[in-house]
């Protein structure tokens, strides 16, 4: 049968190519290589885009032919004596890491088929372990720098203007405040040691990308990390360099540019509204909210006018991240709304303690 033998050839060629590229090949890589599954759809599915979840219905191939593809794929793997590596698919969202379903019906056996990858039989124990980690790893959280059009936060309605950060949650734009990423600071790309260390120390981090219109692709701009992680990474880089000059250089590159007057005004406004807030924390909240280009409340029009509501929001965000276990709830995968519910009591306690005069 010429048609079946040519399909076998196509499957073998695609499997070999995918194996060479990724170090392993599973059904989804094979189907992409064969042109039966669009890589863009797979990428969106990995990010949790609802219209591509589950991904199986996106496979463009008739049932009979698809069954034959899977049979030929298994035959190829068996003939080569390939090693199997199972890797769960997951995605990273604001609420933590969640499993991703491949099949429409969630059938255990078929889910398992899709998460089974083939790798070379000669792969060492150590390399197999590393491969499995790579396959299981959820993609990074991604934050976009808006380029052309203004967007509106789907939760609080604030305008997200070009140059500001935008987060997509199930395809809906969120400002960094509503995405609960506003306690993170921006570390520009370029210093690999700093980037690696800051990411390692940060309990929550996100990759910042920006669309390059002439090249028509997203380019990495840097990382959002916690300010504590950034400070720790700086310390380590300075310890390495072991030079005062290096300290100055590192500090100059990474020091956040602040609008000092705005910080002073905001600190005063916070203390006016919350007289029992420790002064150091008021200043910390103000400095944080006033960071340039951050899209935080401090830079919004309301923040500049020192609107009491904007001030309160900045204070609430600070209390959540510093005085409650909110961040660790998010990291454990608790849904954002549930996490807010759980910490409401401790939040209110601190708020009223700071407010009471
Ligand atoms: Zn918002």
Protein architecture, described:
The protein is α+β, with helices and mostly antiparallel strands. The protein folds into three domains: 2-136, no CATH class; 140-255, no CATH class; 257-357. It contains 15 helices and twelve strands. The chain has helices at residues 2-22, 27-34, 39-46, 63-80, 108-115, 125-136, 192-201, 227-241, 244-254, 260-273, 279-289, 301-304, 308-323, 326-331, 336-355, and strands at 83-86, 90-93, 96-99, 116-119, 141-145, 151-152, 159-160, 165-169, 172-174, 184-188, 206-212, 217-226. α1 (2-22) crosses α2, α1 packs across α4 and α10 crosses α13 (308-323). Bound molecules: zinc ion. Zinc ion is lined by residues 153, 155-156, 158, 174-175, 177-178.
Taken from the alpha-carbon principal axes, the silhouette is elongated
SSE string, helices as H and strands as E: HHHHEEEHEHEEEEEEHEEHHHHHHHH
Helix/strand class? alpha+beta
Ligand inventory reads: zinc ion
Give start-end ranges of low-pLDDT stretches. 292-303
Total domain count: 3
Radius of gyration: 25 Å
Terminal Cα span: 88 Å
- The tally of helices reads 15
Helix content: 40-55%
Our estimate of the beta-strand percent is: 15-25%
- Biggest sheet: strand arrangement: 9-8-5-11-12-10
Average pLDDT figure: 83
Q: How many strands in all?
A: 12
Largest sheet: 6 strands, mixed
């Amino acid at each position: 049968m010429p048609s079946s033998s040519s399909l076998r050839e196509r499957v073998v060629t695609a499997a070999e190519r995918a194996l060479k590229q990724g170090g392993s090949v599973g059904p989804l890589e094979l189907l992409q290589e064969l042109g039966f599954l669009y890589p863009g759809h797979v990428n969106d599915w990995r990010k949790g885009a609802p219209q591509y979840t589950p991904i199986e219905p996106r496979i463009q191939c008739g049932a009979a032919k698809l069954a034959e593809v899977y049979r030929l794929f298994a035959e190829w793997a068996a003939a080569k004596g390939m090693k199997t590596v199972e890797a769960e698919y997951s995605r990273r969202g604001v609420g933590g890491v969640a499993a991703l379903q491949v099949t429409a019906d969630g059938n255990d056996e078929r889910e398992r088929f899709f998460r089974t990858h083939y790798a070379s039989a000669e792969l060492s124990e150590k390399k197999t372990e590393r491969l499995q980690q790579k396959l299981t790893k959820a993609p990074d959280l991604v934050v976009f720098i808006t380029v052309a059009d203004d967007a509106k936060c789907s939760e609080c309605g604030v305008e997200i203007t070009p140059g500001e950060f935008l987060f997509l949650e199930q395809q809906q734009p969120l400002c960094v405040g509503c995405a609960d990423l506003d306690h993170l600071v921006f570390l520009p790309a370029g210093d690999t040691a700093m980037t690696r260390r800051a990411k390692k120390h940060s309990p929550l981090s996100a990759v910042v990308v920006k669309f390059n219109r002439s090249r028509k692709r997203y380019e990495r701009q840097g990382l959002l990390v916690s300010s504590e992680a950034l400070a720790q990474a700086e310390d380590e880089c300075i310890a390495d360099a072991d030079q005062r000059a290096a300290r100055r250089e590192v500090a100059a590159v990474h020091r956040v540019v602040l609008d000092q007057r705005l910080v002073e005004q905001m600190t005063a406004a916070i203390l006016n509204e919350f007289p029992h807030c420790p002064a150091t924390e008021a200043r910390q909240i103000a400095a944080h909210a006033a960071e340039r280009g951050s899209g935080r409340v401090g830079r919004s029009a309301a923040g500049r006018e020192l609107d009491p509501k904007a001030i309160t929001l900045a204070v609430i965000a600070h209390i959540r991240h510093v005085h409650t276990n909110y961040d660790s709830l998010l990291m454990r995968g608790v849904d954002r709304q549930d996490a807010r519910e759980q910490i409401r009591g401790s939040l209110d306690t601190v708020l009223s303690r700071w407010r009471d005069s």
